[in-house]
Amino acid sequence: MNDLSSYAIADFVPFTAEVYFRLIERVSETWWPLHLLTLTAGLAAAGLAWSGQTRSVGGLMAAALAWVSVTFLLTGYASLNWAGSWFGWAFLLASALLLLSVLTQPAPCQMPARTLRRRDRVPRLAGLALTALGVPLYPLIAPLAGRDWSQAEVFGIHPDPTAVATLGIALLTLHGYRLWLTAIVPLLWCLVSALTLQVLQAPSPELLYAAIAVALLTCVKDTPLG
Amino acid sequence: MTHISRRRLLGLIAAGAAGATLNPSAADVAPGMRKKPIPSSGEGIPVIGMGTWKTFNVGGDRQLRLDRTRVLGEFFRHGGGMVDCSPMYGSAGAVMGFALAQLDNTDGLFAAEKVWTNNGSDTRQQIARLESTWDIAPFDLMQIHNLVGWQAHLETVQAMKQEGSVRYIGITTSHGRRHKECERIMTREDIDFLQLTYSVTQREAERRLLPLARERGIAVIANRPYDHGPLIRRLKSREKVPEWAEQAFDCRTWADFLLRFIVSHPALTCAIPATTRVDHMNENMRAGAGPMPTPELRQRMARFIEAL
Predict the structure, then answer these.
(1) Model pTM?
(2) Helices B179-188 and B209-216: crossing angle, nearest 10°?
(3) Which pLDDT tens digit goes with each residue over B28-79?
(4) CA B60 – CA B73 distance, rounded (Å)
(5) DSSP state string for B76-144
(6) Residue A70 gets which letter from DSSP?
(7) Interface of A with B in 11-50 (CB under 8 A)
(8) Phi then psi for B196, rounded to 5 degrees?
């Protein structure tokens, strides 16, 4: 508020690790077995993005972002954090921006061949890596970190893997200002979530920091700001 | 013969177990929780209260809500009084409302809330929402959280006190922030309570604010008495309570040591440790029932902690 500079990051995390991971668990319990569908959709999105079918990918990813916004952020997380509803609305905005970006993105064939060659290699590899982290690998983090499977975070159900996968898909399919527009909310969420996990002394904030670094560097390489 | 289904039988057993946990025997209740007077009225309040930052923010999780209800029940069983909350603490107010509704005995509750909004015209609306959330009215104490928008809020809560819509008013700060501004408000404005961070390792308030509070007749609430948890965890894991403290004032636990150091300061009215655990609540509350250290012992306690 007036003296924001005198606050520590811990002052903005008003819940304990127990409560946060219980929320992840309860949302999982509520929507099981939807996880199987969202994971399949995430893998399908990765395949479609790799093969250049951006419009179908946009629809899948926008739906995932909107679903997580309503079922996790606005419904559950907002009761724990006074800023939670802001993040919920931000995910809805990201969903709309992603849809808009893929619908207005020029088809690959409309781009000059030389531009495609120069642009594609690094973003595609980075995008594939982030999508792999966000979709098939993210559910493994909880058990590998010693938490129960019931607290596994899944693409399309929980915000962290959804944000990471969105960054990956955006790198695979978008360029220029559309890439930045789509990436900004997932990047911010990854930062907020990494800081939250750090305050909660929970494992895996490093993965989110790494995802942010990869996505940012690739975005800057693709389209330097300014 | 009355038939009873398996599900109903299990339900009755579970209800019985929950009831036993929520209303345990009085055998282990420490006698004689100390009280200190609120200078502006003379009303006595128990020296150990309860904070809710992080600990009571459990959202809609029914299992965790019931767990926190047990902690609150233990607090009242030991003669606890002040419960402190804030709109900044997420669902803590709603969880408090839930827990109060579950408990048979909430005698002695001294409900302390805070106004926390930049909008100076939203004071009454926010307080009304808090009353609805807790299902309580009026609040015993309404504080201006971290001095956010304090001029407008203070004017309104002073008017509400005149109307009888709140009983006491106060301001809060933490981590040693904005002490000079607190000092100005304490000098110029009519307030009943000041809440600040004070502990054996955070003693900045001793220099100016605590003497001023005594001079101006303002009650003082100490938040973060365990430095948010790490202090007592570190002490419990590494050190034994010194024998001289046990001999001098029957100090048996680190909770005794840390909380009695705080509430034995003559300017301090109440400390508000927060916990999610019934056993920790028992420790906290027992600290308010025993003998208190003398000023000389307090100096020794501070030197002991500094030397660790």
Answers:
(1) 0.87
(2) 10
(3) 555 689 999 999 999 999 999 999 999 999 999 999 999 999 999 999 999 9
(4) 19
(5) HHTT--EEE--GGGTTHHHHHHHHHHH-S--TT-EEEEEE--S-TT-HHHHHHHHHHHHT-SSEEEEEE
(6) I
(7) 14-16, 18-19, 22-23, 26
(8) -150, 170
CA dihedral of residues B6, B9, B11, B12 (deg, nearest 10): 180
Q: CA–CA separation, A96 vs A59, rounded Å?
A: 10
Tokens found for residue A74: 């606005």
Give the chain B residue nearest A17 (alpha carbons): B54
At B169 the three-state DSSP class reads strand
Q: Does B277 touch chain A (CB under 8 A)?
A: no
A86 and chain B in contact, CB less than 8 A: no
Range in B13-17, B278-282, B297-301 with the lowest mean pLDDT: B13-17
Alpha helices for A8-112 (secondary structure H)? 17-31, 34-50, 54-68, 78-80, 84-104
Class of domain B45-307: alpha beta
Please tell me the distance from the alpha carbon of residue A163 to that of residue B63, in angstroms, as a whole number: 29
- Tokens for B170, please give them: 């106060």
Alpha helices in chain B (DSSP H): 6-22, 62-77, 92-102, 123-134, 150-163, 179-188, 209-216, 230-238, 243-249, 254-263, 278-287, 295-307
Contact by Cβ (8 Å): B157, B114? no
Neighbours of A62 (CB within 10 A): 23
Q: Tally DSSP H helices, then E strands, for chain A.
A: 10, 0
